[in-house]
Amino acid sequence: MKAAVIQFKASTNKETNLKKIISYIEKAASKDATLCAFPEFMMFYTNSTQTPKQLAILSETINGHFVKTIAKTAKENHIQVVGSFYEKSRKKDRVYDTSFVIDKSGKIISTYRKIHLYDALGFKESDKMASGSKIAKPVKTTIGKVGMMICYDLRFPEMSRSLAAAGSEVLIAPSAWVKGNMKEEHWLTINKTRAIENGCYVIAPDQVGNIYCGRSLVVDPYGKILLDMKKKQGIGYTNIDLKKVKQTRKVLPLLKNRRTDVYPTLKA
Length: 268
Description:
268 residues, alpha/beta, 7-stranded mixed beta sheet, 6-stranded mixed beta sheet, 6 helices, 27% helix, 25% strand, globular
């Protein structure tokens, strides 16, 4: 099955970005992609001067205009969409960084609130965001069972392993990977490692421009990079073959060979 990966530079204007997103969905569907995946913070770019209160005011619910418009476009074009948005929370001046999966009928079949906030390397997302409290169960799509992660989550192998053990064949991680010393090397290495150690595909759409490095990736279950979008805005396409997941997990049975009976015996 063909998957489309969208890499673009989000502006600070929600409606401008939404028009771009609609156009990308329509184009991906016209090229026979069955699913298209967008980067983190696709709703709008939040610069350092934007206050937590300003961000909270601009955020929406899952039933708000932003996601509803994307769902309508998915239905009209008979394509699945994975994306993200700033979701309102009950905490004052805090939002959730939430991803969603929409099926071909326009129904939201999964949501996930980012659990690992990027409080590292000089950034502190917790100043503006609230963290989620649970990992979303893998959900069936045309490209396989999908497990959802978001950006910084990739640095925590426990999460991808939990999703793989729960049946994920594809991990999708909408990202906005910040530029910096060794950051692209980290990005490439981590995405390849998550694919190899779990014998699954990893699809990681990334923001490009502003403070972000681009390099949206698709990695196969054996660690081969199938797509690297470098610094280009636009759509990349790749075929997802679930036979590769089964074959890789057969010859390199890492999930099967785990010793979950022994690991808990180690005490700090």
